[in-house]
């Protein structure tokens, strides 16, 4: 089973981010108390209380201090058993990574870091409004390696406006010069309720150039391939089969519990999500209540999720699972993409081809049942 904890605090707002967070850190300790209480109140959500993965996401989990992190781990260990080989991941901003924090994280059992580097270029970091510098970006990788973190992931963003691909190539060259096991690379997207979203509405910036982004994605595939990275999901690459086990559980439709404001949970049938308001979250947990909404997934919903998530991965979509849920025939649409070599079929499993990966969302959408 899998546990996600959402830590909704950041030092400053990145211009592209539409996740739930607050830059007001004054209620951090109260919110952590709420997390601890929710862990207890939701202890029976997962049928199996044996955890294979734990993931601290956000927000910026690396802002939590020793007392706060320790209290969360104490609650987890009180109500769950954690597998001796569990993957325990913490998302960390480069400016929070230092010798002291690394020792703390290791002592608590955190064995995997997700480093939010995004770029090694100073101008791009300022453009994105990241809190760290290019120097922080390089130092955090070396310090993580020196501290013995062999399993960590680097996050990069491509599609950032620029006249050429030079910066993206340099970002990849720098990242791939280190000895690490996992890379996540995401295309910059403009979401409505972000600084970039407001700038786009006011015509203060141009939309992301899709052709430019596709070219950078193709550069990404070429460079990661040269360095023996396997693309096992559209945006995720690994060496030596060090897959991100927690995120892979989502893509494979496994049950998980989400703790914290805006966190989602899935029990195999129902999906639920907590209130996206820190003050309401703190207040409700002080009253021993968890505020959330629930959606019961239909067979059509589950089939579409199998298609959406499976197509993005190396494991593809098992058509026998889809057929067990839905009687409706979608062979005509499937044949179209097979004929145009955007999908390939091996036995009863379909996969995206390299050409199909460039249009993954559209293909999945066309295959959806209604």
TrEMBL record:
Protein origin, superkingdom: Bacteria
| Compartment list | Cytoplasm
Please provide the record's keywords in A-Z order: 4Fe-4S, Chaperone, Cytoplasm, Heme, Iron, Iron-sulfur, Metal-binding, S-adenosyl-L-methionine
GO cellular component terms, A-Z: cytoplasm
Indicate the segments forming the Radical SAM core domain, all copies: 1-230
Protein role: Probably acts as a heme chaperone, transferring heme to an unknown acceptor. Binds one molecule of heme per monomer, possibly covalently. Binds 1 [4Fe-4S] cluster. The cluster is coordinated with 3 cysteines and an exchangeable S-adenosyl-L-methionine.
Question: What's this protein's family per the entry?
Answer: Belongs to the anaerobic coproporphyrinogen-III oxidase family. HemW subfamily.
Q: What is this protein called?
A: Heme chaperone HemW
């Amino acid at each position: 089973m899998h546990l996600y904890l959402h830590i909704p605090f950041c030092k400053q707002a990145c211009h592209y981010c539409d996740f739930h967070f607050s830059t007001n850190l004054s209620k951090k300790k109260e919110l952590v108390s709420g997390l601890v209480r929710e862990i207890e109140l939701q202890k029976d959500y997962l049928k199996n209380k044996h955890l294979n993965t734990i993931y601290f996401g956000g927000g910026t989990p690396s802002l939590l201090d020793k007392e706060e992190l320790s209290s969360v781990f104490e609650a987890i260990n009180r109500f769950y058993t954690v597998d001796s080989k569990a993957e325990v991941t913490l998302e960390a901003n480069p400016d929070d990574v230092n010798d002291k924090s690394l020792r703390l994280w290791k002592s608590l059992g955190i064995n995997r870091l997700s480093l939010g580097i995004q770029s090694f270029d100073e101008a791009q970091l300022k453009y994105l409004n990241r809190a760290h510098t290019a120097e922080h970006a390089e130092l955090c990788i070396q310090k993580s390696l020196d501290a013995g973190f062999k399993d960590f992931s680097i996050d990069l963003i491509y599609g950032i406006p620029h006249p050429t691909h030079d910066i993206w190539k340099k970002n990849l060259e720098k990242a791939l010069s280190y000895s690490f096991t996992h890379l996540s690379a995401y295309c910059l997207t403009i979401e409505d309720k972000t600084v970039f979203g407001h700038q786009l509405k006011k015509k203060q910036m141009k939309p992301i150039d899709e052709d430019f982004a596709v070219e950078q994605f193709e550069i990404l595939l070429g460079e990661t391939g040269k360095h023996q990275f396997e693309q096992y999901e559209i945006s995720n690459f690994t060496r030596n089969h060090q897959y991100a086990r927690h995120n892979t559980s989502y893509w494979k439709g496994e049950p998980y519990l989400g703790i914290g404001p805006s966190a989602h949970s899935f029990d195999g049938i129902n999906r639920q999500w907590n209130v996206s308001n820190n003050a309401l979250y703190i207040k409700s947990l002080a009253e021993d209540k968890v505020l959330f909404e629930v959606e019961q997934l239909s067979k059509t919903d589950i089939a579409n999720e199998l298609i959406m998530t499976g197509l993005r991965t190396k494991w593809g979509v098992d058509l026998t699972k889809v057929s067990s849920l839905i009687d409706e025939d979608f062979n005509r649409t499937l044949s179209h993409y097979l004929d145009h070599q955007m999908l390939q079929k091996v036995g009863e499993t379909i996969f995206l081809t390299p050409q199909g990966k460039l249009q993954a969302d559209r293909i999945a959408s066309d295959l959806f049942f209604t």
